[in-house]
Amino acid sequence: MNKLEETKRNPDSTITVLSIGPQEEDHSALSRIIAAAEWPLCPASRWKLHACSNLDSGMSFLKDHRAPLVICEGDLGTASWRDFWAQAATLPDPPFLIVTSRLADEYLWAEALNLGAYDVLAKPFHPEEVVRALSQAWLHRNYRRSATASLSAIGHPYQPSPSGVAV
User: Does the pLDDT at position 160 exceed 60?
Assistant: First the structure.
């Protein structure tokens, strides 16, 4: 049994957050924030960060592991968060995407949210904002999944888009 199948059996055991970006200091900061955080909205879960430096390694990880939340640097050098999202949105259970940037302006917010990202985080990271964004994304994802399952059980044809908006 691979790691993806194993964690689907016990979804509340560990929540893996995938961080994609070329800056090691960003991964280190996120790892420290996640390790030190109190998770009042998700008390039964442990959180861990898996870091990938580029789009290809991030997609490879997602194909073999369960990472319901992804924090992706806006600029990945030869690719961008848009390239990541175009590939990730085709997965059977796409992750919720949080885009990061030192230039997290209104344009990035509008573009990211309109294209299906869940949130945008400005850098440098503020621990409270990271915990808020991850907790809310996790709760929204779980709500969407339970709502979809409930509607499917009664024969309703609802199918959410990767961002959680009905299509």
Answer: no
